[in-house]
Amino acid sequence: MAAVTTGNYSTGVSTSDSNSSSDSELKSYKTTERQVELIETKPRVNSKSKTRKPDPRAIAAHKLDTLQIQISLVLDFLLLGLSKLNPSKYSKFYMLQYQYPGTDRYDLGLDDTYFVVFVIVNLTLIRSLTMVYVLTPLAKMVHMHKFKAMQRFREQGWVGHTIK
Questions:
Q1: On the CB side of 109, how many CA atoms lie within 13 Å of its CA?
Q2: I need a surface site. Which of 44, 68, 80, 98 has the fewest CB within 10 A?
Q3: Contacts of residue 125, Cβ cutoff 8 Å, sequence gap at least 6
């Protein structure tokens, strides 16, 4: 019995009906034609230089991280300008809603979401400004030169790092 081979792979298709000792040898190497096609068309990866495509989400996150200050400032100035044009409509962003009459107490409501978004944008701005203009120079002052160590120091914002 002779098997049809494609490349280095045996397909297990026999040309005769006789059972011989070579059948048992071929059974362990049997593959279908479809498997042979998939194996042969599979792209090879060079083990020395394994390059991957960058993840689009990682690229977007990196761009957002580098533009935090600009995005926050644009949103703040946009809200400030719009509140000058129509104060009653845009005051929701910088004032709490649902105040009880005659007291200093407030109730919860859906319009408080605008205020929460405004606070998040401004806290992001403060965090970014602190990272860039306070913690980065401080990290350089204590002789941090590795990017990873400096980034960790900036993001965590603690000063308890060992000075060399």
A1: 10
A2: 44
A3: 68, 69, 72, 73, 76
CB-CB contact of 42 with 28 (8 Å):
no
Helices 68-85, 112-130: axis angle to 10 degrees equals: 140
The Cα 114–Cα 131 span in angstroms is 26
Burial class (CB in 10 A: 0-12, 13-18, 19+), 13: middle
Cα–Cα distance between 84 and 76 in angstroms, integer?
12
Taking each helix axis from N to C end, the angle separating 68-85 and 56-66, rounded to the nearest 10 degrees, works out to 60
* Non-local CB neighbours of 112 within 8 Å, separated by 6+ positions: 96, 97, 98
Does the predicted TM-score (pTM) go above 0.70?
Answer: no
Give tens-digit pLDDT for 41-93.
555 555 555 677 778 888 887 788 789 899 999 999 999 999 999 988 898 99
Single-letter residue type at 35:
Q
